[in-house]
Specification:
Number of helices: 14
Distance between the termini: 36 Å
Length: 323
Amino acid sequence: MKVILPQEVINCISKIGNKTAQKNGYKIYTALTLMSKRQNKHKYFPVPSTYLEKINKRYKRTLNALQEAKIIKPYSRIEQHPELLFESIEKKYYNVSRGICIKYKFLIDISKGVIEEIDFDNKRKYRWYSIIENSMAELGYEGKISRDTFGRRVHHPVIPIYKEDLKKKGYAIIDAKCSQPKLLLNIMKDKGIIDKRYEEAFQLDFYNYLVQNLELNDRQQAKDLFMYFLNSNGYVPNYKIHILFPVASKFITNLKTKNYKDASSYLQREESKIWIDDLLENIPTDFALPIHDCLLVKDREVYEILDYCKSKYENIDFEISFL
């Protein structure tokens, strides 16, 4: 891909090591420029170490060089010195348990420089990418396959048109019932966080539970309310949801400590780990297309793939529908 390389970056990476090290350095820099599109109002953007590690395991070498050259700066906080009572230290801020990675910002203008072609086609290393590419070709579609930095969701040209174009042509969807509410429950359980009422809501149907307990009109209103509960910067149409699920509410609030969008980003990334990095990467077929939190497959293979999904994630309520 074409990338603008400021002279400061060229000077910095030229000192990293041999040609291979420099080539990998430019890949890491390219990744940073892509992730910078998600910067907040203070110009900091998240940089997941797992993502950089897949590009190059020695990514820290480039990060350190860019920091020393004052090209990037990590987000840090002032904390109490671990040994000296009246001293403080500046420390990089991240929290693995809450899914908060280190954030960086550029200290230079990255919009000016020399335009170079950087070999950054890392997606082709993964089976999920090849499956999408081959499945699109089999259907007669072509176009860009991309993965965003916000929630690591995969995007391709079939997503907005599959319902009409593939209707009654032998395809099915494997989906998860109450996908994000159940994902939140599973994440809290994994962390040992218990909200009895929130867990109780899944004994029948989560959204119907909201309808009954919050006096809502229908399931759609319940879905909209949950999206506000998860994604908003504080406002929800019905504040009683915070009273109904006090522990879950506190957990979500903690995820939003630095930025209210962090909760949505965190859940989408956890969702993508399941649907893309695991289920699609290891799926027992050569045809499948991800549609965010579901998979489009051939109807003659749907029950085999459904069993595969259930065997990997017993705590997800998978269901199927035919186009």
